[in-house]
Amino acid sequence: MRIIEYSNKYLEDVRDLLVELEEYIVSIDKDELDQVHPEYREKMVLVDLDDINKNNGKCYLAIDDVGNAIGLIMGKISPYDKYDYLDYKCPKRGVIMELIVTSKIRSNGTGKALMDKMEEYFKLNDCEYILVDAFAYNTIAKKFYQSHDYHTRMETMIKKIDR
Fold it and tell me: In sequence order, which residues have a C-beta less than 8 Å from that of residue 74 and are 6 or more positions away?
């Protein structure tokens, strides 16, 4: 396995990986709010890649021995808005947008290799912190991030309103 920077040659593999991730999120969503919209496969990768391009980001791929993308990580260096400084010190921060390793080969170090590559990129760009969101019901992802020294700083809570 090797880690490379994204190229358009892998566009369909990236689409497959993003759909696999979203289908997993849908399967564990106890609130049943997530979905894989019919346009998701076509458009989501374009939205993510545009966000990366506009925000000094990167997409790295884990490539197997036969040349298939088996994992990906996307990250950006997120800007602050013009009022964030009012209640926040605004350290330079990287944001992990997506991380997926295909279910066929998880727990073999691919996720760690992708994280290490993105963390290296953020360090080279003088980021002081890295942010990542983990879906509340995704206990596997939360354990993975915690094992790599990430911790919860904010939590979003939700309540369904009975009508």
Answer: 48, 52, 57, 58, 59, 96, 97, 98, 99
Q: Note down the domain range covering 85.
A: 2-147
Residue 26, CA distances (Å) to 57, 100, 103 in order: 26, 15, 15
Give the count of alpha carbons within 13 A of 110, CB side only.
24
Q: Please say whether the beta carbons of 25 and 135 come within 8 A.
A: yes
Dump pLDDT digits (tens) for 85-121.
889 888 899 999 999 999 888 778 999 999 999 999 9
CATH of the domain at 70: 3.40.630.30
In a domain, 71, yes or no: yes
Predicted TM-score (pTM) of the model is 0.91
- Length in residues, the chain: 163
- Report d(CA 131, CA 76) in Å as an integer: 10
Q: How far apart are CA 115 and CA 85, in angstroms?
A: 28
Residue type, 109: G
Q: CA dist 145 to 15, 104, 151, Å? A: 23, 20, 8
